[in-house]
Design brief:
mainly alpha; single chain; EC 6.1.1.17; protein biosynthesis; three-stranded parallel β-sheet; three-stranded antiparallel β-sheet; 9% strand; 45% helix; Glu-tRNA-synth_I_codon-bd_sub1; nucleotide-binding; 20 helices
Length: 502
Amino acid sequence: MSASADPRTTTATGADVRVRFCPSPTGLPHVGLIRTVLFNWAYARHHGGKLVFRIEDTDAARDSEESYQQLLEALRWLNIDWDEGVEVGGPHAPYRQSQRHEIYREVLQKLVDAGAVYESYSTAEEIDARNEANGRAKQLGYDNFDRDLTEEQRVAYRAEGRQPAWRLRVPDEDLTYVDLIRGEVTFPAGSFPDFVLVRAGGVPLYPFVNPVDDALMGITHVIRGEDLMPSTARQLALYRALVEAGVTSFIPRFAHMPLVLGDTGNKKLSKRDPKADLFLQRERGFIPEGLLNYLALLGWSIAPDRDVFSLEELTAAFDIRDVNPNPARFDQKKAEAINGDHIRMLPPEVFAERIVPYLQGAGVVDAPPTGEQARLLRAAAPLIQERLPLLGDAPGLLGFLFTDSVSYEDDAIASLPANADEVIVASVAALEELPAPEFTAAAIQEALVSALIDGLGLKPRIAYGPLRVAVSGRRISPPLFESLELLGKDATLRRLTGFVNR
């Protein structure tokens, strides 16, 4: 630790590590939020420490119970657990800010008793007027005017019916800390004024309640986004006061993760961008293992030449000091490729189970699947597991196996060669010779090679493309010969002849 950093900064390691995830329940969970909890979770699990999950729900106009439930749903779907907090309890309950107002009042009184805060009666208009009169830019804001009010002045303001806000008496010295990602950071003396902790009327503000909760809950490491870095100066100032008032005995370590950018430009990935919508990514077919693997790569890597790893490998290797401070770009194609790698790592029976909701959502199978549908699904799932980047692609690839009605996609028809009907007729003649009990992938391939490759002199792409379109309606389908085996001889011939006669 730098000699200029506060010596009261925690040195916690190992099981003493305590991190927190403290979102506001507003809107849908987004991937940036999930990356935050993932890095905190991985850091806690790596050190054998604890993750605290609390809710910052003091904005009644924006917070909602629906958003809170969606946060819980997101973490449970991702298999991210926590050691203390909402839903599980713990020694520092309650874990929702809206239920902690009495605690904040008690802490404020301790700061008052320690002389760390003072009553402020200045209105915004009065502050602007004083700045103008003193040739001071309005952007500089509050001028610390109330810091040295006399008791007579305070009595006079109260007599006017004014209620005071409470401001922190910011130290008149540099504030330095060592960011675990960015190194030593110094906020020069005078770079920000005394700031409000509690509004007139007793409403506590975020710059007060967030550090107070961290202090009371023993949080040792604050891991959060780069966009919150400017608030660190105020938090350091408040933490000094909290230590001196006996509220806590140490100052936490801070680590500010890099921004997540969109596909192009240098703008932060918008919460309104579809890529940022966690549930939309799940709907498209991301699995937790694949999505978390990719989100971990937004600022961190397990090795220079390796992108795919398990959650167990992540927690074994993760150190917040290894996070790159440079912005990370959300690459949808790379995310899907990594998701596909994790899909291929699933046991076949697990993969078959995971695509069922997508097949049901598309009306391909019943809910629950019938016995025959389940049998066909078990046989068909391995045919697509190796080529699927998203579970949501499963209905398009497998749907033709579960219906007698085939609809032909425009791009599939456009891809057909001029001799498509000739190919189909020759295929029907060859396949008719196979007895139904011997209608296997190997026998089908042998018959079609003989009729189309050897007999008509066609290249495989020209030979098998029309068959694929005729039986599936698509230009891309599972392996052809195995698909025909699953359809069976009668259904295969019916589709082929139906295609010629369409």
